[in-house]
Amino acid sequence: MSDHETFRQETRAWLEGNCPQSMRSPILGEDDACWGGRGFVFKSDDQKLWLERMASRGWTTPTWPTAYGGGGLNKTEAKILKEEMRKIKARNPLNSFGISMLGPMLLKYASEEMKQQYLPDIVQGKIRWCQGYSEPGAGSDLASLQTKAEDKGDHYLVNGQKVWTSYADKADWIFCLVRTDFDAAKHLGISFLLFDMASEGVSTKPIKLISGNSPFCETFMDDVKVPKGQLVGEAGQGWTYAKYLLTHEREMISEMGSGAAKSVGEIAMELSPTSEGRLRDPILRGQIAAHEIDYASFVATVERVRDEAKAGGGVGAASSTLKYYGTELNKDRSELMLKVGGSDALEWEGQYSGEGKVARTWLRTKANSIEGGTSEVQLNIISKRILGLPSS
Amino acid sequence: MALVLNEEQQLLKDSAAGFLAEKATVEHLRALRDSRSETGYDADVWAETAEMGFTAMVVDEAYGGVGFGMVGAGVVAEEMGKNLSASPWFASSVVAADLINSMASDTQKEALLGPIVEGSNIVTLAVDEGGHHDPEGISARAEKTDGGYKLYGLKSFVPDAHVATQYLVVARTSGSAGDKSGLTVFLLDRGTQGLIVDQSIMADSRNWGRLTMEGVAVTSDAIIGSVDDAFTPLDKTLDKARVVIAAELLGISRACFADTMEYLKDRKQFGVAIGTFQALQHRAAHLFSDIELAHSSIIKALQAADADSPALATLASVAKAKACQVAELATNEAVQMFGGIGMTDECNVGFYMKRARIAQALYGDYNFHAGRYADLRGF
User: What are the boundaries of each domain within chain B?
Assistant: First the structure.
């Protein structure tokens, strides 16, 4: 038996014995996921147990080195773990910006001391992180950010405002882009700081969105003292780290719509008028077929990009293609779900619609092609970095 | 299975790319068209294609094949698409070879496959009967006679018909148009009495033809596979053919896109390269993304064909539909971005566009496969 086959069988047996039954069903939304952190209230004992068991093997971060609490798996083993989890519909034990965004960047650029200090808590789900990137005046033009960090010898004094900070009101720590040098060119004056959201001078204010929910916040920094030891890498190199982190963020956002339990076509057969085993509305049928053909091709592309990265080279600029296409398809899927559900899909409150789940999800997806770099920014990246088209 | 080429497949790709870029390019196609070539391809290059082993991709090793399977055929097809290589390769070495390889008796395979691999015998499948691909709707009929059959009816859009030496004709031995059962495959020799072959001049300057059968008499030995039951194995061969022609469309899209990107960097208007304009950059970046999606769906379907996966039909429709959509966009955007030059015969993009539309129509266009996908997925 090959090593991989042995690994698969051992993994299957372990999952079978350790994944609680209630953790073997799709996560119903962001509120239903396990986010961890100092103040997190687990939805159930099973949710807590599942996190602890997976974290004890480092399988919340399967490919991270064991030295930092990770699983130490190679990419093939990680793929097997994912496949075996999917087979029993095991939930992701921990949703975490520490895992999907900050961790990969720290692994690549942070000092050994910093890795030891921050990574194990991410693996265990002990600290919940948020991302301090966008500012009121720095959206797509992120590098024009103005949050100021003055060098005060043993610490930085941070003043400024961030916006669209996901779950800033629930996060324990923030990874934050600041300007340490106002004389340097705009990309070269940026540094990357980590600090505790409980620090004096940090405050947050949720922003109510079109969905009626408030997953994003404004974050204010008013004379916040950040010890020098919490600077990642070198001062002035923050933009390099920030861009690397963004490639991971894009990958995460591009997959937001995947993993749905049922295809649009299946749901349509339950909710829309049918006759003789097919949808009665021929236009809707064609639109769903077109969507699913694109979606199947997209899923195959995610798989191929991973396989190519495994065979040599990283995901790199391909993350822009995935981010662009994945988010556009996710919006398309949500528009189709409105067509499929008809007026029922537009209910805002009430038991019948699960408090407007379809409608609120539809509105949430509109942010997918804005957050993490708009679709237009992704197309700019593709045309410049991949196609080599000239700048004006 | 990883969605990447292994080392052997990569070598095959390099070898096909090198050979075709030298011997069978769009310039060669242009010359064949301008000289109104009788055959529409270069016989010497065709012989070399066989010597290089490209005609042996899908045939079992026992019958002279090389065991590269559909992934191998797809790799070669993509390179053919990039160069618009004119030859009977797809019709004979892929479609006919696979149908015989998967449906014929051992004796028939022994007799037929060797010459196909050598390129000395060109065989082609005649399935369509009108302007639309509709295998269930076949109405050409084969009437039972003493010791054999007599075939009546019309076949159109037959690839390489006027250079083929033998035809695999799908005809109805029972039932009526619209039935999946009642179809049978017959092998007809060129020159058989009552079989009329007319060349069709098509937009892509390649070889196409119509067959008219006015009581073509054959013995029962001419049957490939079993009587009345051809639909299922035929559709499987068609699925493989659909993915391989999708790979050709991918090659067309890639080559056409590469020419367009060159032009965007070179062509100056308002004092700057037109590639600096964001209006064009975003369309180019979208098209690039779409080409990548088509590529992924094709390699997935090719691997499914070689693994004999039950998902082949669905994956084949996804791949062909996506490739049709992308090739249409790639060729249309090319003409628009080249502007007036794109409208001239001198520019290659017109050749890509014309070949793309033919390949899109062959064995089901976007709409055919989107509808088939919905059928297969039960909505």
Answer: 7-122, 125-224, 231-376
pLDDT tens per residue across span A216-228: 999 999 999 999 9
- Assess contact for B16 and B54: CB atoms under 8 A: yes
Residue from B243, B287, B329, B379 to probe the interface with A (highest A Cβ count within 10 Å): B379
Topology of domain B7-122, CATH: Butyryl-Coa Dehydrogenase, subunit A; domain 1 (1.10.540)
pLDDT digits (tens, 9 = 90+) for A86-109: 999 999 999 999 999 999 999 999
CATH for A129-238 is 2.40.110.10
CB pairs under 8 A between A and B: 134
User: Are the Cβ atoms of B4 and A286 closer than 8 angstroms?
Assistant: no
What mean pLDDT comes out for the span A111-130?
Answer: 97
Q: Hey, are the CB atoms on B285 and A390 less than 8 Å from each other?
A: no
B16: left (phi over 0), alpha (psi -120 to 50) or beta: alpha
Phi-psi region of B159 (alpha: psi -120 to 50; beta: other; left: phi over 0): beta
Distances (CA, A) of B86 to A19, A239, B33, B331: 58, 51, 10, 19
CB–CB of A296 and B294 under 8 A? no
Check if A83 contacts B (Cβ < 8 Å).
Answer: no
**Is A349 marked active-site?**
no
- Please give the Cα distance from A338 to B365 (Å, whole number): 29
Could you tell me where in chain A the CATH 1.20.140.10 domains are found? 255-386
CA quadruple B69, B71, B72, B74: dihedral sign? positive
- Neighbouring-strand partners of residue A173: A129, A196
The residue of A80, A267, A275, A293 whose CB has the most chain B CBs within 10 angstroms, and thus the best one to mutate to test that interface, is A293
Distance from the Cα of B367 to chain A's closest Cα (Å) equals 8
ipTM of the complex: 0.96
Which residues in chain A are closer than 8 Å to B264, comparing Cβ atoms? 389
CATH homologous superfamily of B231-376: Butyryl-CoA Dehydrogenase, subunit A, domain 3 (1.20.140.10)
